[in-house]
Amino acid sequence: MADLALARPRRRTLRLRSGHVGTTLAALVLAGAVLAGLAAPLLWPLDQSAIALDNIAQPPSLAHPGGTDDLGRDGLHRSLYGLRVSLLVGLVAAVVATVIGGLVGGIAGLLGGWPDRLLMRVVDTISALPHLLLGIFIVAMLRPSLGAVILSIALTHWLSTARIVRSELLSLRTRPFIDAAIAGGASRARILRRHLLPHILPKIALATTLMIPHAVWHETSLSFLGLGLPPHLASLGNMINDGQRSLLTGAWWASIVPGAVIVMVTLAIAALAARWRDRLDPRVRAELNL
Amino acid sequence: MIKLIRRRLAVAVPVLFATSVGMFLLGASSPMDPAMQYAGAAAFTTSPENMAELRANWGVDDPLPVRYLRWLGNLLQGDLGWSTTRHEDVAAVIGARAGWTLLLIGITLAVVLAGSLLLGTIAAYRRGGLLDRGLRAGAYAVESMPVFWLALAAIAVFSLALGWFPAGGLTDVRATGTGVGDVAHHLVLPVTVLAVSQTPWFLLFVRDSVAESLRDDHVLAARARGLAGRTVLFGHALRTALLPFLTLVGTHLPELVGGSVLVETVFSLPGLGAVSVQAALGSDFPLLAAITLITTAMVLTANLATDLAYTAADPRVRIDG
């Protein structure tokens, strides 16, 4: 009898294909941003309230690559600190929102029946609320602070996770291996722990990652409106707001530099998340569905 | 259809109610004291007796449920309250500004729909072509730009560097009324910025669904009959893709409202968004709560309307509740 010859899976070689250049670039940008954010307080500490009135509105130069604003503060330096805050807020808020959404979606998907219908209809209705206005309301009533901003993001961004978790659970429940586990006498807790969670967790992690850019935009929007961090603290939104003032005097760099930082980092996160999604679920076509 | 409306209301009304309770509790837990806010600097010279009388008159120290029911009752009777920052009737503040916000959102929506349908269809027809790739790359780039930043960039280029359009406001400072041409000139930049920031999502959706319906049998049959390419593309492929698109417009309205808040603030337009930000900065509960609730109710109604239109246009579809 002839050997059943199966083609051996070829080892992946480490060579960049054309589609990977963007991913590599995104990974480098994100790694650089995180490293810079972590290392900044050690290597390049910032005095948040320091001003230099002899050095105001300087265009970008070698000494100040991001220029200086109308109080003589270094644009690049403050953007770095603003990015730290934005990423921190984005990460924490995305995790909190994921926990809320995971619980709601989990309850709906596991129970099924009328609790599922009711919860999902409530989710649909809440997702129709104008979330920036609600976020503004929450922050305005709690007084602007880091905690209020995080709460405002978490309370308005948990809906997509609830939908993802619920639909995943519903589709998993009908799969044969769950029937097999039930037939084998596995308890509900065991089915959840051994069979359902391993399938869902990567998707939840992906949903959290995809939410970070949204959380960052929400935070910068609130800060831009003056409803985020206190104005003297460096935050990307605050800086763009300050830059609006300088813009009319011709100092374009004061708002362009922090904005470019937001765009680069959120685009990098979104691109990496999209690539991750392709790997998780190759059936879904690569699409940066933000 | 009646059933759909009834089932929608069965959820929407409790959610609106819960939203109002949540907002009221947040407002009540806020450190702002409405009596002190009303008195302003005079609070330091007013005698404690007078302040106490003011508080008693307003009932600010009544138990929470009493205050909530009074507030809700007044809202339902059309009394929206008294703005603590603008010292004006809330209804008057909203009435004077709602029209401009509706105008901004309406024109923007029309531009977004027309632009994304046209460009998305052409991109789908020439999949993988230069236009398709360019549009998609541009869409991803724009999606990651905060709309207020886009607005500032537009001001820097088109008002400051080129001087084509004014940088803000609704009318020229020398104007005495609101002339149509003057307002239109001032609205070009805000509408463009808001439309550009909202288009990517619609554009990508149209492109994908038209690309999919181009593979359908009825499109193939139309081709086989020898119909012109344009007729097939717009008359058959786009038409199939159009229906699901319309219902998604309703679900995207909250984004548009959020964008209009930011755009109005950057361009200093006298709309609801800009005034709600001012109210938020002054912790003006009556004004902010009224705007948030009214906008929420309007978005929910618009959503219901798009779904009704969808079921009317396509009898095969039964939207479940």
From TrEMBL, chain A:
Predominant place of localization: membrane
Transmembrane segments: 21-44, 87-111, 251-274
Membrane topology: Multi-pass membrane protein
Compartments where found: Cell membrane
Location of the ABC transmembrane type-1 domain: 83-273
Keywords per UniProt: Cell membrane, Membrane, Transmembrane, Transmembrane helix, Transport
Homology family: Belongs to the binding-protein-dependent transport system permease family.
Record protein name field: ABC transporter permease
Source organism (scientific name): Actinoplanes sandaracinus
Automatic annotation (TrEMBL), chain B:
TM region positions: 9-28, 100-125, 146-167, 187-206, 227-250, 287-306
Subcellular locations according to the entry: Cell membrane
PROSITE patterns cross-referenced by the UniProt entry: ABC_TM1
Domain of life (superkingdom): Bacteria
Database matches in Gene3D superfamilies: MetI-like (1.10.3720.10)
Keywords: Cell membrane, Membrane, Transmembrane, Transmembrane helix, Transport
Record has rRNA-binding as a keyword: no
Sequence ranges assigned to domain ABC transmembrane type-1 in this UniProt record: 98-306
InterPro entries: BPD_transp_1_N, MetI-like, MetI-like_sf
Membrane topology: Multi-pass membrane protein
Annotated signal sequence range: none
Main localization of the protein described in the UniProt heading: membrane
Sequence similarity: Belongs to the binding-protein-dependent transport system permease family.
Protein name, as recorded: ABC transporter permease
Lineage: Bacteria, Bacillati, Actinomycetota, Actinomycetes, Micromonosporales
